[in-house]
Specification:
Elements (H helix, E strand, L loop, with lengths): L1 H5 L9 H34 L4 E7 L4 E8 L2 E6 L1 E7 L12 E5 L2 E5 L2 E3 L2 E7 L7 E4 L2 E2 L1 E6 L8 E5 L3 E6 L20 E2 L14 E5 L11 E3 L5 E6 L10 E6 L26 E2 L6 E8 L4 E6 L6 E3 L5 E4 L4 H15 L6 H4 L32 H13 L3 E5 L6 H14 L4 E5 L2 H13 L2 H5 L3 E3 L15 H8 L3 H7 L2 E5 L7 H4 L2 E4 L2 E4 L6 E7 L6 H8 L2 E8 L10 H9 L11 H19 L5 E5 L4 H13 L8 E4 L10 E4 L6 H5 L3 E5 L14 E3 L8 H9 L7 E3 L2 E3 L2 H14 L2 H14 L7 H13 L10 H15 L3 H6 L13 H4 L3 H7 E3 L2 E2 L4 H11 L7 E2 L16 E5 L10 H20 L8 E7 L2 H15 L7 E5 L5 E8 H4 L4 E7 L12 H8 L2 E9 L1 H5 L13 H8 L3 E2 L4
Parallel strand pairs: 24-31, 24-39, 25-27, 25-30, 26-27, 30-31, 32-35, 32-36, 33-34, 33-35, 40-41, 42-47, 42-48, 43-45, 43-46, 46-47
Antiparallel strand pairs: 1-18, 1-23, 2-15, 2-17, 3-13, 4-8, 4-11, 5-6, 5-9, 7-8, 9-10, 12-13, 14-16, 16-17, 18-21, 19-20, 19-23, 20-21, 21-22, 28-29, 37-38, 44-45
Helix pairs in contact: 2-3, 2-13, 3-12, 5-6, 6-7, 13-19, 14-15, 19-20, 26-27
Length: 1065
């Protein structure tokens, strides 16, 4: 390892001895700093490998309808109204295409230019001309030979006529170029031979679908006609490909109850970018590979077998299973080890991120000024100055360049300019992003603008073809090798723009081949960077360890994103597994007994505060007794459990102190125990239930419910004031309290309770009012150990928890711009934890100020609440968002819905949303989209429970029973209204003309109080934002004194500053 560090560039010129010492210090610091990341990733890998397989139901999706095709019984031709002559000239004739040819037609003298096509001189004349009497050109007589003349074919039907072209329909094949017949008909005008109107929607491939059970499958061979006489024969549609008959759709087995944990469906694991994943169905031969899939609709086509013997198939079993893939984490671990063990010159700047902040000096540089702009050509456009400023910094930096931009600020446009500039100068770019949409958007715009040809860009799209946009599939690696007949390795070496998501790029052949074996041993070689720049779009959603994998392959790094939108998504299970295996100094793990004692005592303290009559008896293992005792002593010294009397019944020799009394089993006195509040019973003491007074609720003791003691308590429970207060409920029945508490202890753990709280604490880090964040901080402190000894230092435990939070949550972008806010290891201060200094950042960092997406009435809330610090999200003067949909008086409206919540869904609110959507659809059917596009609608919500309810309603509204996210309604002019359904988290990076946002909650904020998540929800709409929710709850202005109200300053401000539509219109 050391010789790699000795070869790294140093800021000081050392002699050999000094260089050796400096290199050793650098090695030690890098290795130790990255060890936390390594341990986090390694523990996450182990956790995932032990995780149960993800399960899903499936059903066929082509068997509920019959597809018919309309086959034209004739041909459509567009015939030009022109007569064409070939000009025959004498030998040695000197042509002059600038001089007109003069001809006489029925003694009428005319002039017309001659054109040259395919080596022939042609004279093209409008209309039908049968004969020309004579012609002269360039002073000489020339002959004209008739090639083609305009005439309307016999027995044809004229469909459309313009000055230069006539469109005709006839049954005879003239072997001319055909036109699409559906351009000239309105399917609403089609009728059967008996005059019955045809009422089915024609798809883009001239097909329509009929439900199999509606008795209409006898359509085959029927004839349809228009009033003009154009005829079609109805035939059963032949699928273009065999595979299309094998589509299946996945369904979640049940509501997984993770709305508060994950806004994403676990079905996503079936759509991994890794082509090597295997799906099982529990049958003997039930192993399948994925041939094609659509994650947004949970649709798959499976194959069975190997190599050339693979064939399309349906699964045999009813339940599909898949093991969560660890390939991404394995690559992260590999990248960390590479940087630890074998860094090369260019990677010294990545190592510098972990050097002591006081010693790490980031080099200065001069910014380029003379740039020929290719994309950012309009210097007067609002925001162009900041966009150009960043391009200059990015092209000049020696290491990092960072661009922050609010929604709709033109970050993608800047990336286009950067790609052109870098490639023009002979550089190579590795482009990554958190989503396929972000990457494909860049490639689509490069293609549309003609930049590929202009700059000789050779783009390669890495990733599974089934997840890539149709418009740029030609650039997918396998397609490029097949279409160009070039070896994969040569193509990759020649490509100057290689693109993929931060996950998908791991399928790059060079990434996959890095780890090899020699003599049975795994070998990892150093990474020699081959790209001049790595550009990461949406890097505000990318953690450091995700960033590091592609970062090793580049010499400089450009980060773009917005830290005020969503942060990286981290699996809760990974955080929990790292907390469960919390490694402390000396390679010791935090004992399970210690975790359990903290977990139980925090809950018991809460239960004790709910009512003075709450008394609990709890059995614990012999090995746990001292941990509970020591932790309880430490807490009571700090006046927790104040006024409470605690008994331990155990054989352990413990000291009575601080209202803690120790009794051996033989010393129990019933009257003495009555005075206790909590009794801990050593399991090895074998205490009968009747030895414990019946007024004690027995926790974690199923036998007690059937005991005589429980029977006696049931008799007198109404005379005691039992109470459990939690969130939004109050439980008075003592047996319900026991059931609720047992359920909590059985389903939860210390690690889980810490994990969700540190996550929520991080989500609230940007709140102006830190009250909620401080509340979580206090709860976390109550869960941490109060007891410590020489073996287990509580500061060490706290630092390790902070380290996990600092690894799991912050993005690489936020770390470098703001530093890690909140929890971080206080023992290490570096650039990655503290961020660049003000001076360093000024050279590398730009904030885009102007937004070009939203109507100003939509953007103003986010600007005033989230972007004032940077004076960003200003409205561009070029925004044109005029339309004539006047249902709402303002472009941001709140529709007050007094609904009710059940399992994170609000049925009344969902129904009202559909009613509002129907009204917009009525408008959109009659009015074109202002920009000449298809209308786009987004239906978004914070909760998957509500998403599911809305999905059911949209499937009925659009008559698309198998659609999950991408709904549509056809219009008569062949355009359509596209309706997307997503959670807020899934919709980041997208936009729509009108957005309907369902708030769902009526008595708690949930994770809507995250300013990042709320900002994303409010900045997707271009023309109109419609918020549906309980206005009284969110505004805090209910006339009912006991009605719950929001605790979020942002949600309250939003409700009080958005015009309200209170009743149906």
């Amino acid at each position: 390892m050391k010789h790699y560090y000795q070869a790294l560039p140093k800021e000081t010129n050392f002699d050999n001895h000094s260089n050796s010492e400096a290199s050793q210090r650098l090695l030690d610091n890098t290795f130790n700093s990255l060890m936390d990341f390594h341990q986090y990733v390694e523990t996450s890998i182990k956790s995932i490998k032990n995780k149960e397989k993800i399960k899903a139901r499936w059903h066929k999706i082509n068997n509920d309808n019959i597809v018919f095709e309309l086959v034209p019984q004739g041909y459509i031709y567009e015939i030009k109204k022109e007569t064409v002559f070939e000009v025959i000239v004498p030998e040695n004739f000197e042509k002059d295409l600038e001089e007109s040819l003069i001809y006489w037609n029925e003694n009428d003298k005319q002039k017309q230019r001659v054109i040259e096509e395919n080596g022939k001189l042609l004279l093209k004349l409008n209309g039908s001309i049968h004969k020309i009497e004579k012609a002269r050109w360039v002073g000489e007589t020339v002959d004209l030979r008739l090639i083609s003349k305009y005439e309307v074919p016999d027995k044809s039907i004229v469909l459309q006529e313009t000055d230069g072209v006539i469109a005709v329909y006839l049954k005879k094949d003239l072997r001319l170029k055909e036109e699409d017949i559906f351009k000239f008909i309105d399917n609403k005008a089609l009728k059967f031979e008996d005059g019955t109107p045809f009422e089915y929607e024609i798809e883009g491939n001239h097909t329509f679908k009929v439900l199999e059970d509606n008795g209409l499958s006898n359509f085959e061979n029927k004839i349809l006609s228009t009033s003009q006489g154009i005829q079609f024969k109805i035939t059963k549609h032949k699928r273009e490909k065999e595979e299309d008959g094998y589509w299946i759709q996945l369904e979640e087995l049940e509501d997984n109850g993770k709305d508060e944990i994950s806004p994403l469906s676990e079905l996503r694991y079936f759509f991994d970018d890794d082509n090597d994943i295997q799906i099982e169905d529990g049958t003997k031969d039930g192993r399948y590979s994925v041939h094609k899939g659509r994650e947004d609709e949970f649709k798959l086509i499976l194959k069975k077998g190997k190599g050339k013997d693979q064939e399309f198939c349906f699964p045999q079993g009813a339940i599909l299973k898949i093991k969560v893939n660890t390939y991404q984490l394995e690559k992260q671990k590999e990248a960390i080890e590479t940087l630890q063990n074998m860094p090369v010159d260019e990677q010294s700047k990545l190592i510098k991120l972990f050097e002591d902040r006081n010693n790490a000096k980031w080099s200065d540089f001069s910014t380029l000024s003379d740039i020929k702009w290719e994309v950012l050509t309009d210097e007067k456009r609002d925001g162009a100055e900041e966009q150009r400023e960043f391009v200059r910094k990015a092209l000049s930096t020696n290491d990092f360049a960072i661009m922050e931009g609010p929604p709709g600020s033109g970050k993608t446009t800047v990336i286009l300019e950067l790609v052109c500039q870098i490639v023009r100068n002979g550089g190579r770019v590795l482009l990554c992003g958190s989503t396929h949409v972000a990457i494909d958007n860049v490639l689509e715009r490069i293609k549309e603008r003609g930049l590929i040809e202009k700059f000789n860009i050779l783009p390669i799209r890495i990733g599974d073809e089934k997840r890539i946009s149709d418009d740029i599939k030609e650039f997918q690696l396998n397609n490029m090798t097949e279409s160009n007949g070039i070896q994969e390795e040569l193509l990759l070496d020649a490509a100057n723009l290689v693109c993929g998501t931060t996950i998908g790029i791991l399928q790059h052949p060079k990434f996959k081949k890095r780890k090899r074996e020699s003599n049975g041993k795994k070998i990892i070689e150093p990474v020699i960077p081959e790209f001049d720049y790595l550009i990461i779009d949406e890097s505000s959603k990318t953690t450091f360890h995700e960033f590091l994998v592609p970062a090793l392959y580049a010499k400089k790094w450009i980060l773009t994103g917005d830290i005020r939108q969503l942060s990286p998504y981290t699996e809760r299970e990974q955080i929990v597994s790292n907390l469960e295996k919390l490694e402390l100094a000396g390679k010791k793990e935090m004992p399970k007994e210690m975790q359990k004692s903290c977990f139980y005592l925090q809950k018991l303290n809460q239960l004790g505060r709910s009512s003075k009559d709450n008394k609990f008896a709890l059995n614990i293992l012999r090995g746990e007794v001292r941990w509970f005792y020591n932790e309880l002593v430490a807490r009571m010294m700090l006046r927790l459990f104040e006024g409470k009397v605690i008994f331990f019944i155990t054989h352990e020799n413990l000291e009575c102190k601080h209202n803690i009394f120790i009794r051996k089993p033989s010393e129990i006195r019933h009257l003495e125990l009555v005075a206790a509040d909590i009794i801990f019973i050593d399991d090895s003491a074998n205490i009968d239930d009747d030895k414990i007074p019946e007024i004690f609720l027995r926790i974690q003791n199923e036998k007690w419910l059937l005991s005589e003691s429980a029977f006696r308590l049931n008799y007198k429970k109404d005379r005691l004031d039992f109470c459990l207060k939690e969130r939004n409920k109050e439980i008075k029945d003592c047996f319900e309290i026991v059931s609720e508490t047992d359920q909590y202890f059985n389903k939860k753990s210390w690690a889980e309770e810490i994990a969700w709280r540190i996550e929520r604490e991080y989500q609230l880090r940007l709140n102006k009012n830190q009250k909620s964040s401080e509340n979580y901080k206090k709860q976390i402190e109550d869960l941490m150990p109060f007891y410590a000894d020489i073996n287990y230092n509580k500061n060490d435990i706290s630092n390790r928890v902070n380290s996990i939070a600092a690894i799991a949550f912050p993005s690489i972008l936020e770390s470098l711009v703001k530093g890690i806010k909140g929890r971080k290891n206080s023992e290490r201060r570096s650039t990655i934890s503290e961020g660049f200094s003000k001076e360093e950042l000024e050279k590398r960092h730009t904030v885009l100020k102007y937004q070009h997406r939203m109507h100003p009435e939509i953007s103003d809330f986010s600007r005033e609440n989230f972007y004032m610090e940077d004076n960003a999200l200003l409205n561009s003067s070029s925004i044109e968002r005029d339309w004539n949909y006047n249902r709402y008086e303002k472009r941001r409206m709140w529709i007050d819905v007094n609904g009710a919540v059940d399992k994170n869904k609000n049925e009344i609110e969902a129904q009202r949303l559909i009613e509002e959507l129907k009204k917009f659809i009525e408008f959109a059917k009659k009015n074109p989209q202002p920009e000449g596009l298809n209308w786009s609608v987004a239906v978004i919500t914070f909760y998957r429970g509500q998403e599911k309810d809305l999905r059911n309603k949209l499937q009925k509204l659009c008559n698309l029973p198998h659609t999950i996210s991408n709904f549509y309604i056809r219009k008569s002019d062949k355009t359509q209204i596209n309706i997307k359904l997503h959670t807020v988290d899934k919709f980041q990076g997208q936009e729509a003309d009108i957005v309907f946002l369902s708030m769902v909650q009526t008595f708690r904020d949930g994770f809507m109080d995250s300013p990042n998540r709320l900002n994303v929800a409010l900045t997707r709409a271009k023309f109109q934002l419609v918020i549906l929710g309980d206005h009284e709850y969110f505004s805090g202005k209910s006339p009912q004194k006991d009605k719950k109200k929001s605790n979020s300053e942002y949600l309250i401000n939003l409700a009080n500053n958005t015009p309200v539509l209170r009743r149906s219109r």
